[in-house]
Every structure is written in C-alpha cells, then in structure tokens.
Amino acid sequence: MANTERLAVLAKVRLAKQEANTRREDNSLSDRDRGLLEQAYTLLDEVEDDLILQEIGDRIDELKAASAALGKVTAKMGTNVKEIQKVVDLVGDAAQALKALANIVAAAATAGIL
Amino acid sequence: MMNLANTRCTGRWSQLVAFTLLLSMVLAGCSVLTDSQVNVINNFAQATKGFSASPAAVMEAHATLRAERGVLVASTMTTHKSALKTLEQGMQQEDRLRQEASKATAALSILDTYSDLLNTLSSDRFTDDLKNKSVALGTALDQDVAVLNKLTGGSTQSFGALVAGIVRGGGGILVRHMQQKALYQAVTNAHEAVTQATRAVEKLMAAYSQLDPKKLDLDLFMQEFMEIKQNFPMMQSAASHRWDLQTLDRVQAALRSSERGLALAKSCSDAAAKYREAHAKLVQALKGGSDPSFLIAEINALAQQVKAGKEVRDELKKKVS
User: Fold this and answer.
1) How far out from the chain centre does Cα A37 lie?
2) Which residue, B70, B90, B156, B178, is the most exposed by fewest CB within 10 angstroms?
3) For residue B107, which of B55, B61, B46, B63 has the smallest C-alpha distance?
4) Which of the 8 DSSP states describes residue B239?
5) Which residue from A7, A41, A78 is facing B216, i.e. has the nearest CB?
6) In this structure, is residue B36 part of a structural domain?
7) Which residue among A31, A63, A94 places its CB closest to the CB of B204?
8) What pLDDT, in 10s, does the model give residues B125-154?
9) In this structure, are residues A77 and B119 in contact, taking their beta carbons and an 8 Å threshold?
10) How far is CA B96 from CA A107, B63, B102, B142, B185, in A?
11) Residue B60 to residues A112, B67, B94, B224, B249: CA-CA distances in angstroms?
12) For chain B, where are the alpha helices, taking DSSP H only?
C-alpha cells in the first residue's frame, strides 16, 4: 500500500474508532449492542496498529538505507584513523627498539661479552 | 676509530634531519584544512555527540504509552473478551514498536560513530601521542649513546632531545596533514548520506509529532492523548460514579507522557534539520576553502537542541517509569 493511501485508510479507521467509542458512551445501549461496539472497537484498534507498524517500518527502512551509505564513509574514516595511528606507533616502536638495544648492550658489557 | 664512528652516526642523523625537515616544509606548504576549519569540525563533532539517543527514546516512549492506553481502555470494556483483547493488543503492539525502535537505534548509531570519528580526527590525540613517543625515542637514543660511550670510552654528545624535537615537529606536521586530508574526505563524502539520514529522522519523527497540520500523518502522541481523553468518561467507577485516585494518577501520567513525547519528537526533528544545515554549510566552507567560524553560533544552537532533547528524554524516562 502506498504511503498516502495507507494514511488515508488510517484516517478512516480512526474516525470509525472514534464513532464506536462515542456510541459506547450511550447509557441506553443494551448489553448486546455495547458488546458488539466493543468488539468493533478492538478490531479497528488492531487494524490501526497494523497500519501504524507498516508506516513506521517503511520510514525505518529509509533511515537504514541512509545509514548504510554513511557507514561506508565511517568505514573509510576508521581506516584513516588506523593509518595515522600506525605512523605514530612507528616512532614508539623505534623508541622501544633503541631502548631494548641499549639494555642488551649494557647487559652484554656487564657480563664481559663486550 | 671512535671519531669515525661518531662522524658516520652524525652523518646519518643529519640525513634524517634534512629529510624530515624537507618533508615538513613540503607538507606545511600544502595544508588541506586551516586550524579554524579543523576547530569548527571538532565543535560540530562535540555538538552532535549523542544525537541518536533521542529519536529512539521517542519511539520507546510511544511504545510504553501504547501499552498503557491498552490498560486504560481495557478498564472501560464490559465483556471480558474485549477487555482481554484490548490488553493483549496493547502488549503486542508495544513489543512490535520496541522492535522497530531497536532497528532505528541500530541505524542511527552510525551518526554517533560519525561524530566520534570526526572528533578523533580533529583532536590532538595523535600529536599528543607522537609527542610522548618522541620523548621516549630521544631518551632511548641518549641511553644508547651513554652505553656506547661507556663501552668505547668515547665522548659522543647526547642528541636524543634534538632527534625527539625533529621527530615531534616533522612527524607532527605529517600526522596533522594526514588528519586534515582524512577530515576533508570524510566531511565532503558524508554530505549526501548525512542529508538523507537527517531527512529520514525528520520523517520518522513527523510520525510522532504531526509537524505539518495540513499533511495527513500518524500523529501518534496526539492520537494516544485524544483516545485516552475520549475513553476517560467510561473509566468512572460504576458504583461510586467517581474516578478512583489510581485511575486519575495513571491517566495523568499517560497524558503527561503524550505531551513530553510530542515535545521530544519535535525537538528531535528540529535537531535533525539543524544538523543537516550545519553540515551542509561546513561542506561548503571546506570546499570553498573559507573560514567556517561563522558556523559556531549555528553549531552552538545545535548543541543546545541536542542537550535540550536529552533533558526532555530524562524527564520522559522518569514519568514513564
């Protein structure tokens, strides 16, 4: 069902529900008639709920499509963040390597190897 | 012999220094973004932090309200079948609406990821990290030189601080260049997707807030409000011809939730529109190479809108629970 068509049906269902509710307020109604109106109300409520859910579902699908497109951009951003961090880490790795070298040479000298 | 080793060592470092300086000069000359542009992107990232939480809160609030309306209307039914059916229908619809809210939350989380990554790419995190690692590198070099001097009896002067300074300076320029390039690509490439996503948020929120009275829409909070009010006369106790306090309390809470939900939906819609406008102007400024500082006021307004949404959201949570 198209969006506008669905909303038009929904408006009619709501009017019918309202009508059923207004009539339910009538104190002169027989128990049978009141029961029938209550049944009608619950049925219309069910239809309204389904229409609402379909409409919400369609709108969320649109949101999901847009989010997927943005997801591609953020994936690339994530890759860029990792690349920049790699450059920074290179300096850290070099520092670690030099520190390890100093420790090895110092230990070797202490042990009399050098 | 020692002097020869020192000369070789110094020669290599001179080459490295020259290369780093050259690279820095080249990169400094072709800066992708200005500091002002980076700052505005950072402001934008801060302002849009947590943007996605409110639309999902609107949906959750409506789901809760739908179930509550089921209880209130069920109390007006005179047959057990209709009362039970009304209750069950309310519970079922609440569950289904919550499932939709979860889907929306998942889809919207990408906007938060985008803000977080913009924040990371426009921050000093990498240069600060580089600074710390450069200091460690300089210290390690000095340590090596000291060990070498001790072993050989040489007197090579420490040059760790010099190297650290060069690596920090040159590396900093390289890192900033990479950050700016990534930021420019991200913001300009995200333009279309951000436009679509924020429009989708507005459309989703319109289902809850009837933004255009002339346009037929779901108008969910107002419908719940009206329906509870319409059923209210039938909630009166048949015996006492009065409304008991518990009923009045529940009706009041439900009506208040409708109003707050409606306000939050409108706030989310406004925030989505401001998000889109600010982002579009940011893209324009980056592409045109202009100073986007004029956007600060707009970004602050967006931040206020997101913050206001959070406040209504917290209030709504209190009322619903």
Assistant:
1) 39
2) B156
3) B55
4) T
5) A7
6) yes
7) A63
8) 999 988 888 888 888 888 888 888 887 888
9) no
10) 69, 8, 10, 66, 39
11) 73, 11, 9, 14, 21
12) 2-29, 35-47, 53-74, 80-121, 125-152, 160-209, 220-231, 245-288, 296-320
E strands, B221-291, where? none
Q: How far is CA B76 from CA A18, B48, B231, in A?
A: 14, 45, 7
Segments in A1-114 forming alpha helices (H): 3-24, 31-110
Among the listed residues B236, B229, B234, B233, the one whose alpha carbon sits nearest the alpha carbon of residue B256: B229
Phi, psi of A25 (to 5 degrees): -75, -15
Q: How many domains does chain A have?
A: 1
**CB-based contacts of A102: which residues, under 8 Å, 6+ apart?**
B140, B143, B144, B146, B147
Range of the domain at B116: 28-125+174-320
Judged by DSSP in three states, B304 sits in: helix
DSSP code at position B31: -
What is the domain extent for residue A18? 3-110
pTM greater than 0.90: no
Across the interface, whether the CB atoms of B147 and A96 are under 8 A apart is answered no
Grouped pLDDT means (10 residues each) for chain B, 321 residues: 48 58 57 88 93 92 97 96 97 98 96 96 92 87 84 80 83 90 96 96 93 82 95 91 94 95 93 95 93 88 84 71 47
**What is the residue type of B90?**
G
Quick one: DSSP state of residue B122?
T
Q: What is the DSSP string of B58-77?
A: HHHHHHHHHHHHHHHHHTT-
Residue B235 in contact with partner chain A when CB distance is under 8 A: no
Residues in B touching A74 (Cβ below 8 Å): 110, 113-114, 117
Contact of B27 with chain A, judged by CB distance below 8 Å, is answered with no
Exposure string of A36-75, with b = 16+ CB inside 10 Å and e = fewer, is: bbbbbbbbbbbebbebbeebbebbbebbbebbebbbebbe
Q: Does B238 touch chain A (CB under 8 A)?
A: no
Question: Does residue B76 lie in a domain region?
Answer: yes
Per the listing, tokens 């006021």 go with B297
Structural domains counted in chain B: 1
Residue B49 resides in a domain: yes
Report the C-alpha gap between B97 and B68 in whole angstroms. 13
Q: Single out the residue of B219, B262, B209, B224 nearest to residue A7, CA to CA.
A: B219
Q: Which distant-in-sequence residues (6+ apart) come within 8 Å of B2 by Cβ?
A: B152, B153, B154
